[in-house]
Write a structure and sequence with these properties.
This protein has 10 helices and 15 strands. It is an alpha/beta fold. It has a 7-stranded antiparallel β-sheet, sandwiched between helices. A hairpin with a 2-residue loop joins strand 1 and strand 2. The longest helix is centred in the middle third of the chain and has 42 residues. The N and C termini lie far apart (104 Å).
Length: 389
């Protein structure tokens, strides 16, 4: 015996585990065409329960032109808020037509329930709902409302309903056909929802994986870059100590040293500095710049160098960047644009006369750089420690 469309549809819904929304929409279009041709059913909708502001509501989920707002399951008197809400609450299939065959459900005073004709029960009024723009929908010409709740383990999970502008007779074959179609629509829509959620989760994980792939880690296969920042009027003796130790490390292939004053290759200097800081593994900055003799402080912290230090510090906790560690060096008698007393740094040791304590500074700088760059080769470390004054 040839299967009906409803039986084919229900068999199809039971046999698949994955359904995309595009596929579901194609099935729904075919189903609408079949329902209109065979039953003059002009509307099919699926309702699910959603809680809004603590109140259970019924919300339409199919993408139809006649979209409307969600509405409370129960009215102000704690009664079923309309015929669909009644079927949802009572977990019972309903085939409702007006008592007056000439009237629409919207006009009717009394109704007849044809799915369970021998079971008498009061039915609530047919409810006119608000459209998606918040306006009351115009009266519909509906004469038959068929509501089929989906019940699992004693709980209504959703409800599929059909509307027709004809007064339809609830034959046994028609009831079976529409129930099969309702069950298939509910299952396929659930599968499409699940598939959409899975794709969203997958897209989220792919995005996370993509970000992770941009993470830069030191695998020891390339020479790390060290960005050296300092002001134009930096103390020459201090700069000489920096130059000795950093030059030894660069010549020992421990680091690739970037100093924009010596590595400048043309183009906009800020762009070049930003690019190099973004690609640097280590950062060393001498913040202090000499002031004139009449100044209250012998030095002040250069804003440009501090800005560059701030740029690098912002990259240290970013897994997509190479930045790992930094060293700041400043003069003890240096005026800072803002309070940086809490930042861990090396203070340049000076005698009361203001002259540099070279041996102490050389030793301190060597130890700090050794701590800055893990795995510093012994020969390079020893060479920096033995730099002659």
């Amino acid at each position: 015996m040839k299967l009906t469309f409803g039986e084919d549809l229900e068999s199809f819904a039971r046999s698949i585990d994955i359904c995309r929304f595009e596929e579901f929409e194609d099935v729904l279009d075919s189903t609408r065409e079949y329902l209109e041709t065979n039953f003059n059913i002009t509307k099919v909708e699926r309702l699910v329960e959603r809680v809004y502001q603590g109140v259970p509501n019924l919300e339409p989920t199919l993408n139809t032109e006649d979209q409307y707002e969600h509405y409370p399951v129960r009215d102000d008197h704690d009664e079923a808020n309309g015929l669909n809400a009644c079927a949802f609450i009572r977990k019972r299939k309903q085939w409702v037509v007006p008592e007056d065959k000439e009237a629409t459900l919207d006009e009717a005073i009394a109704y007849r329930e044809l799915w369970n004709p021998n079971e008498k029960e009061d039915l609530p009024r047919y409810v006119r709902l608000l459209s998606s723009d918040g306006q009351l929908r115009s009266p519909r010409q509906t004469k038959t409302l068929i509501s089929i709740p989906m019940v699992k383990r004693g709980t209504t999970t959703s409800l599929v309903y059909f509307e027709s502008e004809d007064t339809l007779v609830a034959s046994e074959r028609a009831r079976d056909e529409l129930e099969g179609i309702a069950k298939a629509i509910a299952r396929l829509h659930e599968l499409a929802d699940q598939n959409d959620d899975t794709h969203l989760a997958t897209a989220k994980e792919i995005k996370f994986l993509g970000k992770s792939s941009q993470g830069v880690q030191d695998w020891g296969v390339s020479v790390p870059s060290l960005f050296f920042a300092y002001p134009d009027d930096a103390d020459e003796e201090v700069m000489a100590e920096f130059s000795k130790q950093l030059t030894v490390m660069e010549s020992g292939n421990v680091i690739r040293l970037f100093d924009w004053r010596t590595n400048y290759e043309g183009g906009r200097i800020p762009d070049k500095i930003e690019k190099e800081i973004g690609g640097a593994t280590y950062f060393v900055a001498y913040l202090s710049e000499q002031q004139g003799e009449a100044a209250k402080h012998a030095f002040f912290d250069n804003p440009n160098v501090m800005y560059e230090a701030g740029m690098f510090q912002g990259l240290v906790n970013d897994v997509t960047q190479r930045a790992t560690s930094w060293l700041l060096v400043r003069e003890p008698d240096s005026l800072a644009p803002f309070d940086i007393s809490t930042v861990n740094m090396l203070l340049v040791p000076r005698k009361k006369s203001g002259s540099l304590k070279k041996s102490e500074f050389t030793e301190s700088l060597s130890k700090r750089i050794a701590n800055l760059i893990p795995g510093l080769p012994d020969e390079v470390s020893q060479e920096t420690e033995s730099i002659p004054e």
